[in-house]
Amino acid sequence: MTRAWAPGRVNLIGDHTDHAGGLVLPMAIDLGTTVSGRRGGDRIELRSTQQPEAAVVSIDVEDPAAIAPAWARFVAAVVAEVRPEEGFVGEVTSDLPVGAGLSSSAALEVAVAMALGFEGSALALARLGQRAEHRASGVPCGIMDQLASAAGVAGHALRIDCTTLDVDPIAVPADIEVVVVDSGVRRSLATSAYAERAAACQEAARLIGPLRGAGPDDVAVIVDPVVRRRARHVVTENARVDLLVAALGAGDHDAMAAVLADSHASLRDDFEVSTPGLDRLVAEVAALHGVIGCRLTGAGFGGCIVALVQRGTRLPDHLLAWRVEPVGGARCEP
Ligand code: GLA
Predict the structure, then answer these.
(1) Distance 334 CA to ligand 1 centre (A)
(2) Residue 262 is a catalytic residue
(3) What whole-number distance in Å separates Cα of residue 284 and Cα of residue 303?
(4) How many structural domains does the chain have?
(5) What is the pLDDT of residues 181-218, one digit of tens each?
(6) Model's pTM, two decimal places?
(7) What letter does residue 189 receive in the DSSP assignment?
(8) Same domain, 208 and 284
(9) Whether residue 178 sits in one domain with residue 166
Protein backbone atom coordinates (compact mmCIF):
# COMPACT_ATOMS: atom_id res chain seq x y z
CA MET A 1 0.00 0.00 0.00
CA THR A 2 1.37 3.42 -1.01
CA ARG A 3 0.17 6.58 0.68
CA ALA A 4 1.19 10.06 -0.49
CA TRP A 5 0.08 13.25 1.24
CA ALA A 6 0.56 16.80 -0.03
CA PRO A 7 -0.45 19.96 1.80
CA GLY A 8 -2.35 22.94 0.44
CA ARG A 9 -0.88 26.35 1.03
CA VAL A 10 -1.85 29.81 2.12
CA ASN A 11 0.15 32.76 0.90
CA LEU A 12 0.94 35.29 3.65
CA ILE A 13 2.05 37.93 1.13
CA GLY A 14 3.46 38.24 -2.40
CA ASP A 15 0.52 37.58 -4.70
CA HIS A 16 0.70 37.75 -8.48
CA THR A 17 4.46 38.08 -8.26
CA ASP A 18 5.55 34.48 -8.92
CA HIS A 19 4.62 34.52 -12.62
CA ALA A 20 6.76 37.68 -12.87
CA GLY A 21 9.83 36.13 -11.17
CA GLY A 22 9.09 37.94 -7.89
CA LEU A 23 9.06 37.21 -4.17
CA VAL A 24 6.37 35.22 -2.35
CA LEU A 25 5.81 34.09 1.27
CA PRO A 26 3.50 31.05 1.32
CA MET A 27 3.29 28.35 3.96
CA ALA A 28 2.25 24.72 3.59
CA ILE A 29 -0.81 24.11 5.79
CA ASP A 30 -2.22 21.23 7.81
CA LEU A 31 -5.01 20.67 5.28
CA GLY A 32 -4.10 18.54 2.31
CA THR A 33 -4.76 15.74 -0.12
CA THR A 34 -3.98 12.05 0.29
CA VAL A 35 -3.59 9.54 -2.54
CA SER A 36 -3.52 5.95 -1.31
CA GLY A 37 -3.58 2.67 -3.17
CA ARG A 38 -1.46 0.06 -4.92
CA ARG A 39 0.92 0.33 -7.84
CA GLY A 40 0.47 -2.09 -10.74
CA GLY A 41 -1.35 -2.58 -14.05
CA ASP A 42 -1.21 -0.20 -16.98
CA ARG A 43 -3.61 2.52 -15.95
CA ILE A 44 -4.17 4.96 -13.12
CA GLU A 45 -7.60 4.57 -11.59
CA LEU A 46 -8.46 6.95 -8.76
CA ARG A 47 -11.77 7.44 -7.00
CA SER A 48 -12.26 10.68 -5.10
CA THR A 49 -14.46 11.19 -2.09
CA GLN A 50 -15.10 14.75 -3.39
CA GLN A 51 -16.01 13.85 -6.99
CA PRO A 52 -18.81 11.71 -8.43
CA GLU A 53 -16.76 10.22 -11.27
CA ALA A 54 -13.43 8.37 -11.08
CA ALA A 55 -10.28 9.37 -12.97
CA VAL A 56 -9.16 6.59 -15.30
CA VAL A 57 -5.96 7.33 -17.22
CA SER A 58 -3.69 5.13 -19.30
CA ILE A 59 0.03 5.26 -18.32
CA ASP A 60 0.80 6.37 -21.88
CA VAL A 61 -1.90 9.08 -22.02
CA GLU A 62 -1.14 11.50 -24.86
CA ASP A 63 -3.53 14.42 -24.51
CA PRO A 64 -4.29 15.08 -20.82
CA ALA A 65 -6.40 18.15 -21.61
CA ALA A 66 -8.89 15.94 -23.48
CA ILE A 67 -9.61 13.67 -20.48
CA ALA A 68 -12.93 13.77 -18.59
CA PRO A 69 -14.15 14.42 -15.93
CA ALA A 70 -12.39 17.77 -15.38
CA TRP A 71 -10.51 16.74 -12.22
CA ALA A 72 -9.07 13.72 -14.06
CA ARG A 73 -7.19 16.14 -16.33
CA PHE A 74 -4.93 17.04 -13.42
CA VAL A 75 -4.26 13.36 -12.76
CA ALA A 76 -3.67 12.76 -16.49
CA ALA A 77 -1.29 15.72 -16.78
CA VAL A 78 0.78 14.39 -13.87
CA VAL A 79 0.82 10.92 -15.43
CA ALA A 80 2.05 12.46 -18.71
CA GLU A 81 4.84 14.24 -16.79
CA VAL A 82 5.89 11.33 -14.54
CA ARG A 83 5.49 8.62 -17.23
CA PRO A 84 5.31 5.84 -14.62
CA GLU A 85 6.24 2.30 -15.66
CA GLU A 86 3.22 0.88 -13.89
CA GLY A 87 -0.28 2.02 -13.07
CA PHE A 88 -1.98 2.75 -9.73
CA VAL A 89 -5.38 1.92 -8.31
CA GLY A 90 -6.58 3.83 -5.28
CA GLU A 91 -8.42 6.69 -3.69
CA VAL A 92 -8.08 10.44 -3.26
CA THR A 93 -9.25 12.04 -0.04
CA SER A 94 -8.84 15.69 0.90
CA ASP A 95 -9.80 18.18 3.56
CA LEU A 96 -8.94 21.10 1.26
CA PRO A 97 -11.88 23.06 -0.12
CA VAL A 98 -11.80 23.07 -3.94
CA GLY A 99 -11.55 26.45 -5.66
CA ALA A 100 -11.13 28.42 -2.43
CA GLY A 101 -7.58 29.56 -3.14
CA LEU A 102 -5.77 27.05 -0.91
CA SER A 103 -4.13 25.24 -3.85
CA SER A 104 -6.22 22.10 -3.95
CA SER A 105 -5.01 21.42 -7.51
CA ALA A 106 -1.33 21.81 -6.59
CA ALA A 107 -1.80 19.41 -3.65
CA LEU A 108 -3.46 16.88 -5.97
CA GLU A 109 -0.65 17.17 -8.53
CA VAL A 110 2.10 16.78 -5.95
CA ALA A 111 0.39 13.88 -4.16
CA VAL A 112 -0.33 12.00 -7.40
CA ALA A 113 3.25 12.46 -8.63
CA MET A 114 4.62 11.01 -5.37
CA ALA A 115 2.13 8.15 -5.36
CA LEU A 116 3.26 7.27 -8.90
CA GLY A 117 6.84 7.02 -7.64
CA PHE A 118 8.37 10.39 -8.55
CA GLU A 119 11.61 10.66 -6.59
CA GLY A 120 13.30 13.95 -7.53
CA SER A 121 14.00 16.99 -5.36
CA ALA A 122 11.24 19.20 -3.96
CA LEU A 123 12.04 21.76 -6.67
CA ALA A 124 11.84 19.14 -9.43
CA LEU A 125 8.55 17.90 -7.97
CA ALA A 126 7.19 21.46 -7.91
CA ARG A 127 8.28 22.12 -11.49
CA LEU A 128 6.61 18.89 -12.61
CA GLY A 129 3.40 19.91 -10.81
CA GLN A 130 3.51 23.38 -12.37
CA ARG A 131 3.88 21.91 -15.88
CA ALA A 132 0.99 19.56 -15.13
CA GLU A 133 -1.14 22.51 -13.99
CA HIS A 134 -0.37 24.35 -17.24
CA ARG A 135 -1.31 21.28 -19.29
CA ALA A 136 -4.46 20.46 -17.34
CA SER A 137 -5.95 23.90 -16.80
CA GLY A 138 -4.26 26.07 -19.41
CA VAL A 139 -3.59 28.65 -16.66
CA PRO A 140 -0.01 30.01 -16.90
CA CYS A 141 0.49 29.88 -13.13
CA GLY A 142 3.78 30.50 -11.36
CA ILE A 143 5.56 27.96 -9.17
CA MET A 144 4.49 29.17 -5.72
CA ASP A 145 1.70 26.69 -4.99
CA GLN A 146 3.50 23.52 -6.01
CA LEU A 147 6.78 24.59 -4.38
CA ALA A 148 5.07 25.48 -1.10
CA SER A 149 3.36 22.07 -1.10
CA ALA A 150 6.56 20.19 -1.95
CA ALA A 151 9.05 22.13 0.21
CA GLY A 152 7.05 23.21 3.30
CA VAL A 153 8.87 23.49 6.63
CA ALA A 154 7.00 22.97 9.94
CA GLY A 155 6.55 26.19 11.90
CA HIS A 156 7.73 28.31 8.97
CA ALA A 157 6.54 30.20 5.93
CA LEU A 158 8.79 30.06 2.86
CA ARG A 159 10.31 33.15 1.31
CA ILE A 160 10.72 32.05 -2.29
CA ASP A 161 12.58 34.07 -4.88
CA CYS A 162 10.81 33.00 -8.06
CA THR A 163 13.77 34.14 -10.20
CA THR A 164 16.54 32.19 -8.44
CA LEU A 165 14.14 29.65 -6.85
CA ASP A 166 15.96 30.05 -3.53
CA VAL A 167 13.73 28.98 -0.63
CA ASP A 168 14.31 30.51 2.83
CA PRO A 169 12.22 29.26 5.78
CA ILE A 170 10.89 32.19 7.85
CA ALA A 171 9.69 31.33 11.36
CA VAL A 172 6.06 32.21 12.11
CA PRO A 173 6.15 33.66 15.66
CA ALA A 174 4.60 31.32 18.23
CA ASP A 175 2.17 34.00 19.48
CA ILE A 176 0.65 34.40 16.02
CA GLU A 177 -1.97 32.18 14.40
CA VAL A 178 -2.77 32.16 10.72
CA VAL A 179 -6.50 32.12 9.94
CA VAL A 180 -8.03 31.67 6.52
CA VAL A 181 -11.52 33.10 6.01
CA ASP A 182 -13.53 31.92 3.03
CA SER A 183 -15.53 34.49 1.07
CA GLY A 184 -17.67 31.61 -0.17
CA VAL A 185 -17.19 32.79 -3.76
CA ARG A 186 -15.71 29.98 -5.87
CA ARG A 187 -13.72 30.81 -8.95
CA SER A 188 -11.87 28.94 -11.63
CA LEU A 189 -8.58 30.51 -12.67
CA ALA A 190 -9.12 29.28 -16.21
CA THR A 191 -12.13 31.53 -16.57
CA SER A 192 -10.60 34.39 -14.64
CA ALA A 193 -8.35 37.09 -16.01
CA TYR A 194 -5.23 35.38 -14.60
CA ALA A 195 -3.63 34.90 -18.02
CA GLU A 196 -4.44 38.46 -19.03
CA ARG A 197 -2.80 39.80 -15.83
CA ALA A 198 0.31 37.65 -16.33
CA ALA A 199 0.55 38.87 -19.94
CA ALA A 200 0.45 42.51 -18.78
CA CYS A 201 3.40 41.77 -16.47
CA GLN A 202 5.30 40.23 -19.38
CA GLU A 203 4.58 43.29 -21.47
CA ALA A 204 5.94 45.49 -18.67
CA ALA A 205 9.09 43.34 -18.46
CA ARG A 206 9.55 43.67 -22.23
CA LEU A 207 9.46 47.44 -21.80
CA ILE A 208 11.59 47.95 -18.69
CA GLY A 209 13.37 44.63 -18.05
CA PRO A 210 12.70 41.98 -15.37
CA LEU A 211 10.27 43.35 -12.75
CA ARG A 212 12.24 41.58 -10.00
CA GLY A 213 15.02 44.12 -10.46
CA ALA A 214 12.79 47.13 -11.15
CA GLY A 215 11.79 49.94 -8.80
CA PRO A 216 8.91 52.44 -8.76
CA ASP A 217 10.89 54.92 -10.93
CA ASP A 218 11.34 52.31 -13.67
CA VAL A 219 7.64 51.53 -13.64
CA ALA A 220 6.68 55.21 -13.85
CA VAL A 221 7.97 55.46 -17.45
CA ILE A 222 5.49 52.86 -18.75
CA VAL A 223 3.02 54.82 -20.87
CA ASP A 224 0.06 52.42 -20.91
CA PRO A 225 -1.74 53.14 -17.60
CA VAL A 226 -3.02 49.57 -17.19
CA VAL A 227 0.38 47.93 -17.79
CA ARG A 228 1.94 50.54 -15.50
CA ARG A 229 -0.45 49.72 -12.65
CA ARG A 230 0.04 45.95 -13.06
CA ALA A 231 3.82 46.43 -12.94
CA ARG A 232 3.58 48.81 -9.98
CA HIS A 233 1.71 46.13 -8.04
CA VAL A 234 4.44 43.54 -8.72
CA VAL A 235 7.31 45.87 -7.85
CA THR A 236 5.73 47.17 -4.64
CA GLU A 237 4.50 43.69 -3.64
CA ASN A 238 8.04 42.30 -3.98
CA ALA A 239 9.20 44.96 -1.52
CA ARG A 240 6.31 44.17 0.83
CA VAL A 241 7.37 40.51 1.07
CA ASP A 242 10.63 41.57 2.69
CA LEU A 243 8.83 44.13 4.86
CA LEU A 244 6.61 41.35 6.25
CA VAL A 245 9.63 39.05 6.72
CA ALA A 246 11.28 41.82 8.76
CA ALA A 247 8.09 42.52 10.75
CA LEU A 248 7.69 38.81 11.58
CA GLY A 249 11.31 38.67 12.72
CA ALA A 250 10.87 41.74 14.92
CA GLY A 251 7.43 40.70 16.24
CA ASP A 252 6.20 44.13 15.10
CA HIS A 253 2.41 43.80 14.85
CA ASP A 254 1.83 47.38 13.64
CA ALA A 255 4.24 46.88 10.76
CA MET A 256 2.56 43.55 9.90
CA ALA A 257 -0.85 45.24 9.84
CA ALA A 258 0.34 48.05 7.60
CA VAL A 259 2.05 45.84 5.04
CA LEU A 260 -0.89 43.43 4.83
CA ALA A 261 -3.29 46.36 4.31
CA ASP A 262 -1.03 47.84 1.61
CA SER A 263 -0.86 44.48 -0.17
CA HIS A 264 -4.64 44.19 -0.25
CA ALA A 265 -5.01 47.76 -1.54
CA SER A 266 -2.46 47.11 -4.29
CA LEU A 267 -4.20 43.88 -5.37
CA ARG A 268 -7.51 45.77 -5.35
CA ASP A 269 -6.48 49.03 -7.05
CA ASP A 270 -3.42 48.27 -9.19
CA PHE A 271 -3.80 44.58 -10.02
CA GLU A 272 -7.62 44.62 -9.86
CA VAL A 273 -8.13 41.05 -8.66
CA SER A 274 -10.23 41.78 -5.59
CA THR A 275 -14.02 41.77 -5.43
CA PRO A 276 -16.44 43.89 -3.35
CA GLY A 277 -17.09 40.80 -1.21
CA LEU A 278 -13.38 40.29 -0.47
CA ASP A 279 -12.96 44.02 0.28
CA ARG A 280 -15.88 43.91 2.76
CA LEU A 281 -14.51 40.77 4.40
CA VAL A 282 -11.04 42.28 4.79
CA ALA A 283 -12.51 45.44 6.34
CA GLU A 284 -14.69 43.40 8.73
CA VAL A 285 -11.95 41.00 9.83
CA ALA A 286 -9.24 43.68 10.14
CA ALA A 287 -11.44 45.54 12.66
CA LEU A 288 -11.91 42.50 14.96
CA HIS A 289 -10.26 42.38 18.36
CA GLY A 290 -7.14 40.18 18.26
CA VAL A 291 -6.68 40.44 14.48
CA ILE A 292 -3.28 41.85 13.58
CA GLY A 293 -3.97 42.29 9.87
CA CYS A 294 -5.43 40.61 6.79
CA ARG A 295 -5.54 40.63 3.00
CA LEU A 296 -6.92 38.63 0.10
CA THR A 297 -4.71 35.64 -0.62
CA GLY A 298 -3.96 33.70 -3.78
CA ALA A 299 -5.21 34.65 -7.21
CA GLY A 300 -8.21 36.69 -6.04
CA PHE A 301 -11.50 36.98 -7.97
CA GLY A 302 -13.11 35.24 -4.95
CA GLY A 303 -11.63 32.58 -2.67
CA CYS A 304 -10.16 33.40 0.72
CA ILE A 305 -8.54 36.07 2.81
CA VAL A 306 -5.64 35.37 5.17
CA ALA A 307 -5.43 36.95 8.62
CA LEU A 308 -2.63 37.01 11.16
CA VAL A 309 -4.22 36.92 14.61
CA GLN A 310 -3.01 36.81 18.18
CA ARG A 311 -2.99 33.14 19.19
CA GLY A 312 -6.27 32.10 20.80
CA THR A 313 -8.36 34.80 19.11
CA ARG A 314 -11.89 33.57 18.41
CA LEU A 315 -13.49 34.84 15.22
CA PRO A 316 -17.29 35.27 15.10
CA ASP A 317 -19.20 32.11 14.17
CA HIS A 318 -20.72 33.54 10.99
CA LEU A 319 -17.26 33.66 9.39
CA LEU A 320 -16.25 30.47 7.61
CA ALA A 321 -12.73 30.27 8.99
CA TRP A 322 -9.94 27.72 9.28
CA ARG A 323 -7.04 28.04 11.70
CA VAL A 324 -4.07 26.64 9.85
CA GLU A 325 -0.61 25.69 11.07
CA PRO A 326 2.59 25.72 9.00
CA VAL A 327 3.62 22.12 8.28
CA GLY A 328 6.32 20.19 6.44
CA GLY A 329 5.99 19.45 2.73
CA ALA A 330 4.61 16.47 0.85
CA ARG A 331 5.57 12.93 1.87
CA CYS A 332 5.02 9.40 0.68
CA GLU A 333 5.08 5.99 2.39
CA PRO A 334 6.65 3.60 1.68
C1 GLA B 1 -2.51 31.17 -8.13
C2 GLA B 1 -1.34 30.66 -8.96
C3 GLA B 1 -0.01 31.02 -8.31
C4 GLA B 1 0.06 32.51 -7.98
C5 GLA B 1 -1.20 32.96 -7.25
C6 GLA B 1 -1.24 34.46 -7.06
O7 GLA B 1 -2.53 30.52 -6.90
O8 GLA B 1 -1.43 29.26 -9.12
O9 GLA B 1 1.06 30.62 -9.14
O10 GLA B 1 0.28 33.26 -9.14
O11 GLA B 1 -2.38 32.58 -7.94
O12 GLA B 1 -0.20 34.86 -6.24
Answers:
(1) 31
(2) no
(3) 16
(4) 2
(5) 999 888 766 567 899 999 999 999 999 999 999 999 99
(6) 0.97
(7) G
(8) yes
(9) no
